[in-house]
Amino acid sequence: MPGWIPKKFPGKVAEPMIPFYAAGLIVLYAVNAGANAYMASDEYKDDPRNPNLKPQAKTP
């Protein structure tokens, strides 16, 4: 093996990170739920930037 390739580190990487992965998923779920709640609220449901806003039929 060439000298510039480091030796394998004999430690676990993914297993100690499991609580952080779980916390990240929980935070992502909470942010998504909050954003969905804001989009559905009365204050923002008619905002033109809302992706859930249905296009209005144009009357001539």
UniProtKB/TrEMBL annotation:
User: From which domain of life does this come?
Assistant: Eukaryota
* Keyword annotations of the record: Membrane, Transmembrane, Transmembrane helix
Q: Name one GO cellular component term.
A: proton-transporting ATP synthase complex
Query: So where does this one cross the membrane?
Result: 20-39
One Pfam family for this entry, by name?
ATP-synt_J
Residue numbers spanned by region Disordered: 41-60
Q: Which GO terms describe its molecular function?
A: proton-transporting ATP synthase activity, rotational mechanism
This protein is called what? ATP synthase subunit J, mitochondrial
